[in-house]
Design brief:
single chain; 554 residues; alpha+beta; 7-stranded mixed sheet; 3-stranded antiparallel sheet; binds magnesium ion
């Protein structure tokens, strides 16, 4: 349909040729369908018994993951409403780092349920209002049932980190990795006036395929993926006094073209001597301050390397800016931009600086820093794919650990909080008159999709499980959830499956916002350049392909 009208017999064209438009129910239906298919495609990855996905990009590179955000990122989604679901995963990941799959599943359910209501002639605005009220209630309830913990309580931090990794490829080593993540996070936690603050960027994660996951290590310092520059330099320096340089140990080139006429060999000699002296001067400035390790963000001239090597100084060059900043935090040194302004107090300290060979690469370890405010985790694992997935899983673990430290409250997992939210919302809905009640009830249904999916993925009968869960929650067992390993409804608190409150709250917010936004759209105008949306890799399980559906929308 073209946005046009007839004016005295002449059509007035507003959109460019080839543009398309769909409105009203058609537009809503297409958007909801697209969003539901996205949700459907990640469903099978939820929980410890969820499956992994193998994603192949256009270069043939393979990623194996069960991380919701990564799956959606790699899917190269084109449909605009489907893209909004990718945004849900992204927001969830950026805000709290975990719960991306759950957020997308709930958003999909909210939309599917809304569509049923629209079919029954409930206006989208009423649904959106109902959803908003329900979301507010859900947030209040989660806050109420959450268990407060001590912000730096290692036991709980370790438990949430373990839970976040239970659903990943690295689950077998989850306790070991959770211990590393917890120690790392606690090391970089800073006290603020109101509580504690953690910057995930203070933990450098380096990965190298080889050995096994249990060889993953926490380094009390920074690992730099660079080797020592000169063969004559020591490979190991104990009690290192470190200069962090943000200036090149080279003779600066002039910005303008200059020509020097040299007329005799003596002049040539003098010219070279001058250069040598300048470099020597630079090295002396470093030596005078008592440094025995130089870490440089820029280049180091061959001759300067030679002078440094002669004095038994270990030097590394072309280190990334982000690593330099972390090094400053770890060693307590200051990044120096001018050698003339350097003082002894600007030097950093580490027990040991050593070049080691990891797999095929030489790397420099700056470790044994005193109370470092930045640390490194070196991930090892059987294959490239395993270390990649371990890195993603560790990211989730570090994020949930941070969430608990910054907002020290936890809830138990296994679908327990979702079912409790559903129960309370149904009760709340009964107290309301009118059609909003319907929306709130359907909101409650959407939350039940979490225990249902956990049960389905574990090969259990969701109907049996949900009825048992409902009955037990009705009796006041707030933490009754489904423990997927033994396939039974259990008190999830007793089995130690804890998650941060922050993750659950963010799920409510991201899913409701995305669903409301998509529901509000009743007109889709696409410019002519838009291509038909492609089918996601593998296609959604049991659902229709994204292609024909998307194409039908425009
Ligand atoms: N032992 C367990 N028994 C039952 N459920 C569990 C268990 N361990 C974790 N879970 C549940 O698994 C769910 C998390 O699964 P998963 O990590 O696959 O998805 P996500 O956190 O929503 O998304 P992502 O990790 O991809 O960002 C949570 O609801 C959590 O409570
Ligand atoms: Mg998770």
């Amino acid at each position: 349909m073209r946005l046009s009208t007839q004016l005295a017999g002449t059509p007035v064209l507003i959109l460019r040729e080839g543009a398309s438009r769909s409105r009203g129910r058609d537009a809503q239906h297409a958007n909801v369908m697209a969003a539901k298919i996205v949700a459907e495609s990640v469903k099978s990855a939820l929980g410890p018994k969820g499956m992994d996905k193998m994603l192949v990009d256009s270069f043939g590179d393979v990623t194996i993951t069960s991380d919701g955000r990564t799956v959606l990122d790699e899917m190269d989604i084109q449909h605009p409403a489907a893209k909004m679901m990718v945004e849900v995963a992204k927001t969830q990941d950026d805000e709290v780092g975990d719960g991306t799959t759950t957020a997308v599943i709930i958003a999909g359910e909210l939309l599917g349920n809304a569509e049923d209501l629209i079919d029954k002639n409930v206006h989208p605005t009423i649904i959106i209002d109902g959803y908003r009220k329900a979301a507010d209630r859900a947030l209040e309830l989660l806050e109420k049932i959450a268990v407060p913990v001590k912000p730096k309580d290692r036991k709980f931090i370790e438990m949430v980190a373990t839970t976040s990794m239970a659903s990943k490829l690295v689950a077998e080593n989850k306790e070991y990795l959770a211990k590393i993540a917890t120690s790392g996070i606690l090391q970089v936690t800073e006290k603020t006036e109101t509580g504690f603050k953690v910057d995930i960027d203070d933990i450098k994660v380096e990965k190298k395929a080889g050995e096994s996951l249990t060889d993953t290590k926490l380094i009390n310092g920074i690992l730099v993926d660079k080797e020592v520059v000169h063969p004559g330099m020591p490979r190991r320096v104990e009690k290192a006094q470190i200069v962090l340089l943000d200036t090149a140990l080279e003779i600066e080139k002039t910005e303008f073209d200059a020509k020097i006429n040299i007329e005799s060999p003596e002049q040539m000699d003098a010219f070279l001597k001058q250069e040598e002296n300048m470099l020597k001067g630079m090295v002396d400035k470093i030596l005078n301050k008592g440094a025995n390790v130089v870490i440089c963000q820029k280049g180091i001239d061959d001759l300067a390397q030679h002078f440094l090597a002669r004095k038994n100084i270990l030097a590394v060059r072309r280190v990334k800016k982000s690593d330099m900043e972390k090094l400053a935090k770890a060693t307590g040194g200051k990044i120096i931009t001018s050698l003339d302004d350097m003082t002894k107090r600007d030097l950093g300290f580490a027990e040991l600086v050593e070049e080691r060979k990891i797999a095929d690469d030489k790397m420099t370890f700056i470790e044994g820093c005193k109370n470092p405010r930045a640390v490194t985790i070196l991930i090892r694992g059987g294959t490239e794919r395993i270390v990649d997935e371990a890195e993603r899983s560790l990211h989730d673990a570090l994020c949930v650990a941070r969430d608990v430290i910054e907002e020290p409250k936890v809830v138990a997992g296994g679908g327990a909080p979702e079912l409790e939210v559903a129960r309370a919302l149904r009760e709340y809905a009964d107290s309301l008159p009118g059609r909003e009640q319907l929306a709130i009830t359907r909101f409650a249904d959407a939350f039940e999709a979490v225990p249902t999916t956990l049960a389905e993925n574990a090969g259990l009968d969701p109907i049996d499980i949900i009825s048992e869960l409902r009955a037990r929650h009705e009796k006041g067992e707030v933490w009754a959830g489904i423990e997927v390993h033994d396939g039974k409804v259990t008190d999830m608190k007793k089995v130690g499956v804890y998650e941060p409150l922050a993750v659950k709250k963010q799920i409510v917010k991201s899913a409701t916002e995305a669903a409301s936004m998509i529901l509000k759209i009743d007109d889709v105008i696409a410019s002519g350049k838009m291509k038909a949306p492609p089918t996601p890799p593998g296609g959604p399980p049991g659902g229709p392909g994204m292609g024909p559906m998307g194409a039908g929308a425009y």
